[in-house]
Specification:
Layout lengths: L7 H14 L7 H10 L15 H8 L7 H15 L7 H8 L10 H8 L5 H9 L1 H8 L7 H11 L7 E2 H13 L2 H7 L6 H16 L10 E3 L3 E4 L8 H24 L4
Length: about 270
């Protein structure tokens, strides 16, 4: 039996030992303590159990450095998963719980983080490994306006993310979508919104941005005079999962964009 009667250095060792027993061996002491307290069930050796006095959790946590940003995301992920057992928490849900933007680029983005936590389905894992470059680029791109994200929303709404759309339909859908959201209307300001003027505006902005190879040397989308389409190939069996994963990031990124714009354009 392990107790917490000791100085805080010895207590930290005991908490980490409990974490190792429960398979939590990569987190800080404070995060390990919170996770042990939050979990209804733990993967322990047969005949072992961990019982924590919840009244002491706050006092013990105050002895140690606070959880890191990544650890706060793990704690939020665990809490959300526990409250909705048949639903994998989304990027937006966890961000709303922590009040922070995600910083997982070195892990392969949000889905790389989920993979480390063992929370990707086999289908999501295959999509992530095969299309990691696109998903990481999307998650960590620069968005001074909402246009690139709105473009993806229109494609997703038309079930055309992997096949593309006529440029005229893409531009029309984007204007309709933006006009439904007052804070997005501010992005296009005094741009012409007649059919020809808006199409030209959309070509000059998100279409040009998405079709620019940039530092990668290869763009994720291509356009000719009439059509906008992806340059990547998606297996038919992966289309739905790829679309859902892209949509999850777009929803998160649009929320972050609007949250930033509330305090000034960034």
């Amino acid at each position: 039996m392990l107790d917490f009667v000791a100085n805080h250095e010895a207590t930290a060792v005991k908490i980490q030992l409990l974490g190792e027993l429960a398979g939590i061996d990569t987190l800080s002491t404070a995060a390990t303590l919170q996770l042990l307290a939050a979990r209804d069930s733990l993967d322990l050796p047969r005949g072992c159990e961990i019982v924590l006095d919840l009244e002491l959790i706050e006092d013990l946590s105050a002895l140690f450095d606070p959880p890191s940003r990544t650890e706060r995301a793990i704690l939020a992920l665990e809490a959300r998963a526990a409250s909705t057992p048949n639903h994998r928490p989304t990027a937006l849900e966890v961000s709303l719980m922590t009040g922070e933007a995600h910083r997982f680029k070195e892990l392969g983005g949000w889905f790389g983080f989920l993979d480390e936590q063992g929370m990707l389905t086999p289908e999501e894992y295959r999509v992530w490994t095969q299309h990691r470059d696109f998903l990481v680029h999307l998650e960590h791109g620069a968005y001074t306006r909402s246009y690139k994200l709105v473009t993806l929303q229109v494609l997703i709404g038309a079930d055309a993310l992997t096949s593309g759309l006529p440029l005229s339909e893409l531009a029309e859908g984007a204007l309709w979508l933006m006009n439904r959201h007052p804070r997005l209307v501010a992005d296009y300001g005094n741009a012409k919104t007649d059919t020809a003027g808006w199409l030209a505006h959309w070509k000059r902005n998100p279409v040009a941005a998405w079709t620019n190879p940039g530092a990668r040397g290869e763009a994720f989308f291509a356009a000719d005079e009439t059509w906008f389409r992806p340059t990547f190939q998606i297996d038919d069996a992966q289309v739905d999962t790829f679309t859902d994963m892209t949509n999850e990031l777009v929803e998160y990124l649009l929320h972050r964009y609007l949250a930033r714009s509330d305090g000034g354009r960034s």
